[in-house]
Write a structure and sequence with these properties.
Length: 466
């Protein structure tokens, strides 16, 4: 038996170094015990060789996608995560394409863990609430309590530092606390909910703010409740009011409209989270495509849209404009949605891959199809967009979009024209990509396919609100 000790539950570097050493020495996964913190006194005293083989530089190269996956999985609450990752690493030596095999049960399990971690990271960003208190020197400090499901607090530290750089704040969680004094970030021990302020003026501000905007004409109650799992309600002052609000909302509706114009809305809150996400995506380096593209082309449209459209990737013109579907395919798209009575201003439009992939031919940039690794790397963004917008219906335009949404390869001809269920409860509708129509040489066929495309869009639209 070998024992690998990691200093913290999210200690990716220690896991990677130990795992590299074990893999280079071909230590079978069953022979490794992974633990966080010091070993219980004599548990391994007689049975364990605690010498971790040192990493052997250059002997093991693994796909970048595996390292990205491992970085997320290490933060999962799942106690087996280190062992599962090492098993995958050990297999990778003989099965170099393992990580692309999404049907493999181990790969699937790791992907689910990574997805749950990413979701938790996002939840912390979207739902954490600060309450104002006075520090010893009388200055304001903002304190928040948050209970993550996974070990994601450190991974979110930079986000909060960037977002609230000019405030002094503390984030308390059961595992650790983060403190920012405007210049330096420090870490402290875990805390209890009682350590965080409660019922202070900031809380009152939040309550008033939510009570005044809780107007069913502007906020979808169902969407709000879906978006905030019950687990979070207990820490959110505004959600303490949800029951009352639902009961009273109808009666107060007319009187509240003027107030709600001034007050920020739940929609504004989601819009702020969306803007933060878009800003983050602008600096995306999750795959190599950012190196040659002009910019990240993020999704656009209302954050409370009931319909979302997902294309493949920005084209030449989108890359320059920074807006999806503005080039030739965008014109076909605009014509088709108009024919299906869909208002582009009311829908959210995005792409599976956010950077333009092309081959340079002289001065021309010729579209190149994104590969599976690029689609997978970019899925992070589309999942976040989905989580924020929560569309009832998502239309995948073409095979790349369908693959990104469903996580598997689909045949458009087989799947178009019917609803598929997405994990978040929304519906996916699959249809062709507008550029498919552009490529058809025969005008009669082009017209017939356009009509079919519009029929698909009409069906998807009819599913909204159904
Ligand atoms: N094709 C796409 O898939 N998306 C765009 O934004 C433009 C062309």
């Amino acid at each position: 038996m070998r024992l690998a000790t990691l200093s913290a539950p999210d200690d990716f570097d220690a896991w990677r170094d130990a795992a590299r050493g074990f893999a280079a020495a071909d230590v079978p996964p069953d022979d490794v015990v992974w633990q966080v913190g010091a070993a219980p006194a004599d548990l391994f005293a007689t049975t364990t060789d605690t010498t971790v083989p040192p990493p052997v530089p250059g002997t093991l190269s693994v796909p970048r996608a595996f390292l990205d996956l491992a970085r997320s999985v290490v933060m999962a609450a799942e106690p087996e995560r280190f062992a599962l990752l090492y098993t995958a690493l050990h297999r990778l030596r003989r099965e170099p394409k393992l990580i692309e095999d999404h049907a493999d049960p181990l790969v699937r399990r790791l992907e689910v863990l990574a997805k749950n971690v990413r979701r938790d990271i996002h939840k912390m960003r979207a739902f954490l609430r600060f309450r104002e208190v006075a520090d010893d020197d009388g200055a304001s400090r903002y304190v928040a309590w948050f209970e993550p499901e996974h070990h994601i607090v450190r991974a979110n530290a930079a986000f909060f530092v960037n977002r609230f750089a000019s405030m002094r704040w503390s984030i308390l969680t059961p595992e650790l606390s983060l403190h920012w004094d405007g210049a330096m970030l420090s870490e402290g021990p875990g805390a209890a909910k009682g350590d965080a302020p409660d019922g202070d003026p900031t809380e009152e501000v939040w309550k008033t703010y939510y009570a005044s905007i809780f107007n069913p004409a502007r906020v979808k109650i169902g969407a709000m409740l879906k978006e905030m799992p019950r687990k979070y309600w207990k820490n959110m002052p505004e959600t303490a009011l949800v029951g009352q609000l639902i009961a009273g909302a109808q009666a107060r509706e007319s009187g509240m409209i003027s107030q709600s114009r001034e007050a920020p809305t739940i929609g504004d809150n989601v819009a702020a989270a969306w803007a933060a996400l878009r800003d983050e995506a602008a600096a995306c380096t999750r795959c190599h495509l950012y190196k040659h593209a002009t910019q990240t082309v993020f999704g656009e449209g209302p954050v409370d849209a009931a319909m979302m459209f997902v294309g493949e990737q920005p084209g030449d013109q989108e890359d320059l404009a920074g807006t999806p579907f503005v080039g030739p395919a965008g014109q076909v798209f605009n014509r088709a949605i108009a024919a299906a009575a869909i208002d582009r201003g009311q829908v959210y439009v995005t792409n599976a891959v956010k950077h333009f992939k092309f081959e340079a031919r002289g001065k021309r940039r010729i579209h190149a199809k994104p590969d599976t690794g690029e689609i997978e790397a970019c899925r992070w963004w589309i999942e976040q967009e989905q989580m924020l917008v929560r569309p009832q219906v998502t239309v995948a335009l073409g095979a790349t979009a369908a693959r990104s949404l469903l996580g598997r390869t689909v045949t458009i001809g087989k799947e178009r024209g019917r609803a598929l269920r997405l994990p978040d409860g929304g519906e996916a509708w699959i249809t062709v990509h507008p550029s498919y129509l552009l490529r058809l040489p025969d005008p009669a066929q082009k017209e017939a396919e356009f009509v079919r495309f519009v029929e698909d869009l009409k069906l998807a639209k009819a599913a909204v609100g159904g």
